[in-house]
Specification:
CATH architecture of the domain at 3-95: Roll
Strand order of the largest sheet: 4-3-2-1-7-6-5
CATH topology of the domain at 3-95: PH-domain like
Number of helices: 3
Shape: elongated
Radius of gyration: 30 Å
Strand content: 25-35%
CATH class of the domain at 3-95: Mainly Beta
Structural class: alpha+beta
Order of helices and strands: EEEEEEEHHH
Largest sheet: 7 strands, antiparallel
Length: about 150
Amino acid sequence: MSQAFAGTLLLPGEEGPGLDAVLETVEKDIKLLAGESELGSWAQDDCSITSVGPGSFEMVLGGEVVLFTPDTPRQFAEALAASADSNATSIPLASRIESQSEGNKKRQPAEPTRIEPLKSVAKVEVLGGMLTATIVAVSGLLIVALLMLSASL
């Protein structure tokens, strides 16, 4: 039986809207698609899902960790739980769904970072004024000497 769930993907620690993606179960494989591109395919035996908050699931897909937020989280959880309950077509992935208990640590939202606007830029003189003038003068003399040499040839 094949199922597909639209949602968004984030990497651990990443913030923002996430990448629009589709998680698809096909026979004994899990596929992640973004638009027309396949992000990857894994055997269900190499995958596990952990509920990490309201509507979000941490997925370990063959060692790769992503955060998947399905558009329909309840249907996603129910479909995986129903697959685990049926004896004839038990899906290994669904049988390893772990719910986050109250005792487990909860993800803390990242604290906002305050960014101060740039008020002024100090001019830092790398070379002294005399050294700069000397370099310009020597360069000018070198150019004049090269032009005179090329004219005489």
